[in-house]
């Protein structure tokens, strides 16, 4: 192999190794259900619409995961979602995300004034999403 091609091969190999290391580091932060800072927040209204249109629960859950959305809903609101066609699997996932968020960030549970939560256009309370949690939470 000519010397000029050898240098190029080493550069490409180095770049490939750097890309793999970057992916490994990025993937290691995905073990948590909350606190990620990528994807779009998924509203409750969107979850209901997707459910009514027959989108598979796994796809809805994947969309919620990518969005890093945390939901602050009452038992009555979850029951209403079920009546509107949201599957138990999706509802269970939404509840687990909230439970894990409260464990990781106890201030969320003690936040009576909802300072760590954002009121969505649809009247539901959210945290997380593309910008993560507020630093004080």
What characteristics describe this protein?
137 residues
Q: How would you portray this structure in words?
A:
Residues 14-37 have low confidence and may be disordered. 55% of the residues lie in helices and 7% in strands. The termini are far apart. The chain is mainly alpha-helical. The chain is globular. The protein is built from six helices and three strands. A three-stranded antiparallel β-sheet has the order 1-3-2. The protein folds into two domains: 1-31; 44-131, no CATH class. The longest helix is centred in the first third of the chain and has 26 residues, at 3-28. Helix 3 packs parallel to helix 5 (88-104).
First-last Cα distance: 58 Å
Query: What overall form do the CA principal axes indicate?
Result: globular
Strand tally:
3
- Measured by DSSP, the beta-strand proportion falls in 5-15%
Bin the helical content: 55-70%
Biggest β-sheet: strands ordered side by side in the sheet: 1-3-2
Structural class: mainly alpha
Number of domains: 2
Topology:
Elements: H1 3-28, H2 44-52, H3 57-67, E1 69-72, H4 75-83, H5 88-104, H6 107-110, E2 118-119, E3 125-128
Helix pairs in contact: 3-5
In short:
By secondary structure, this protein is mostly helical. 55% of the residues lie in helices and 7% in strands.
């Amino acid at each position: 192999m000519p010397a000029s091609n050898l240098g190029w091969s080493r550069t490409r190999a180095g770049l490939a190794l750097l890309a793999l290391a970057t992916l490994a580091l990025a993937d290691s932060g995905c073990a948590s259900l909350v606190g990620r800072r990528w994807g779009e927040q998924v509203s409750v209204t969107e979850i209901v619409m997707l459910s009514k249109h027959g989108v598979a629960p796994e796809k809805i859950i994947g969309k919620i995961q990518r969005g890093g959305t945390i939901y602050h809903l009452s038992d009555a609101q979850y029951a209403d979602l079920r009546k509107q066609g949201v599957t138990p699997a999706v509802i269970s996932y939404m509840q687990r995300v909230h439970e894990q968020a409260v464990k990781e960030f106890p201030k969320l549970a003690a936040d009576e004034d909802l300072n760590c939560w954002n009121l969505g256009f649809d009247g539901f309370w959210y945290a997380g999403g593309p910008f993560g949690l507020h630093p004080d939470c």
